[in-house]
Amino acid sequence: MPIKYTSTVTVVDRSSGKKSYQNQYMHMQKTEELIAEFNKTYRVKGKGKFNQKIRNELVKRGGVVFTPIEESTGDITQGLA
């Protein structure tokens, strides 16, 4: 199953009353958006699981190199190929 980026959103059609569900998945997001979200939530407590999901997606796409924290500032835009 694909990895969710945000929670499921329920959209109700006002004229017919029918419900539809919209999901946003990691593979649907742009690489730049994933990098920005990773850098924004990198040091936030409780976001480790979400950051690991972003890392897995970026590694799957290729072109991003993660360096240890001691060697970098935590910003992964330096490692873009």
Question: Which key features would you list for this structure?
Answer:
81 residues; alpha+beta
Number of domains: 1
N-to-C span: 28 Å
Mean pLDDT across the residues is 83
**Main sheet attributes: strand count, strand direction, barrel closure:** 2 strands, antiparallel
Strand percent estimate? 5-15%
Principal-axis shape equals elongated
| Structural class based on helices, strands and sheet pairing | alpha+beta
Give the number of helices.
2
Helices and strands, in order, run as: EEHH
The share of residues in helices is 25-40%
What is the tally of beta strands? 2
**C-alpha-based Rg, rounded:** 16 Å
Strand order of the largest sheet: 1-2
**Unreliable residue runs:** none
Write up what this structure looks like.
The chain has helices spanning 31-40, 48-61, and strands at residues 9-12, 19-22. The chain contains two helices and two strands; from the N terminus they run E-E-H-H. Helix 1 packs antiparallel against helix 2 (48-61). The longest helix has 14 residues, at 48-61. The protein has one domain (1-8, 30-81). A two-stranded antiparallel sheet has the order 1-2. The chain is elongated and about 55 Å long. The model has no long low-confidence stretch (mean pLDDT 83). It has 81 residues and is of the alpha+beta class. The chain is 30% helix and 10% strand. The two termini are 28 Å apart.
TL;DR of this structure?
This protein is α+β, with helices and mostly antiparallel strands. It has helices spanning 31-40, 48-61, and strands spanning 9-12, 19-22. The protein contains two helices and two strands, in the order E-E-H-H.
